[in-house]
Amino acid sequence: SLAAYTASSRGSQISQAETQLNEDGILALNLIQQQIKQAGYSSQVIPSNGALNMGNYRGVAVRGCDFGFTDSGAAFDDLACAASGSGGSAIAIRYEATTDNTVPTSASLPTNCLGNGINVITPSDVSPPPTGGAGIYALADNRYLVDSSDSQPMLTCRGAEKNGTANIIGTSQPLLVNVESMQILYGVAKLPSAELAPTHDPLRHQIVGYKTAAEIDALTNSGTFPSDNKLDSWERVLSARVCLVMRSDLPVRDAPEGAFTYKSCSNIDTTGTDGYLRKTYTTTVLLRNRLLTQ
């Protein structure tokens, strides 16, 4: 009958939309999760005398903002947070990029989040420099944010990339559509983590709570890095809890009661009024290059 056909067609449409939500949500989480796992990575070099620092990269692994960056193309140390925004959180992730932890270009350059090559020109932080002088490496600096300015919201990324013999922060490009918003909370320790620490230190390697980016920025300096509040605060981050709100590609007609209600990233029941299905996806990722276990 016509009624049975209509009901079957409606059910099929909702099922397809839910399948698409699940596929997109899992893919989006995997994209970000893979990057956060690499945050702070650095290969180790034997210094010529002693071992004040053995890593090529020594610095903040992640830097976030709750409502996006005012300018996502700014230099890492100049990134500032917007006061409001519909897309939610933004995160910048830094690590030493190699041809092993990225997909290299045809010229054997490490790549950023968009597959664009990064010049190997950043001076190594190894101290004291090894015999023969300090080396150079490729520094990945990838920024993830949600662009909701268009009718189809999307997860985007831009990162450090080759520009002649230099590196610049490239143009933002879409990674995945139908990502409506992102919320990130950060697991923090009491004190900044100590890279290459020989033993587990509960003050530096144990998560004591989760905070927003604004709460991290407001932390009182611990005295570990007295002249750099940003380094002192963000070096305490040991994990990131990422929540994404995904939206169906198309509106769903004649959906049953309750179909448009979903849990927000704040765990609040929210009901959409525009005909799109929504669902949240959450994961917690450890910063493996900052966390020492017992």
Could you describe the 3D structure shown?
It is built from 4 helices and 13 strands. Helix content is 18%, strand content 29%. The longest helix is centred in the N-terminal third of the chain and has 37 residues, at 2-38. It starts with a helix and ends in an 8-residue tail after the last strand. The chain is globular and about 70 Å long. The model is unreliable at 1-7 (pLDDT under 50). The chain is an alpha+beta fold and 294 residues long. A hairpin with a 2-residue loop joins strand 5 (154-163) and strand 6. Strands 1, 2, 3, 4, 5, 6 and 7 form a 7-stranded antiparallel beta sheet that branches.
What's the short version?
The protein has helices spanning 2-38, 202-205, 213-217, 229-234, and strands spanning 62-65, 90-97, 122-123, 136-147, 154-163, 166-169, 173-177, 179-188, 209-211, 237-247, 261-263, 269-271, 278-286. By secondary structure, it is of the alpha+beta class.
Please state the structural category: alpha+beta
Shape: globular
* Major sheet description: 7 strands, antiparallel
Question: How many helix segments?
Answer: 4
- Strand and helix order: HEEEEEEEEHEHHEEEE
| Low-confidence parts | 1-7
Secondary structure tally: strands: 13
Mean pLDDT reading: 90
Q: End-to-end distance, in Å?
A: 66 Å
Helix content: 10-25%
Radius of gyration: 22 Å
Share in β-strands: 25-35%
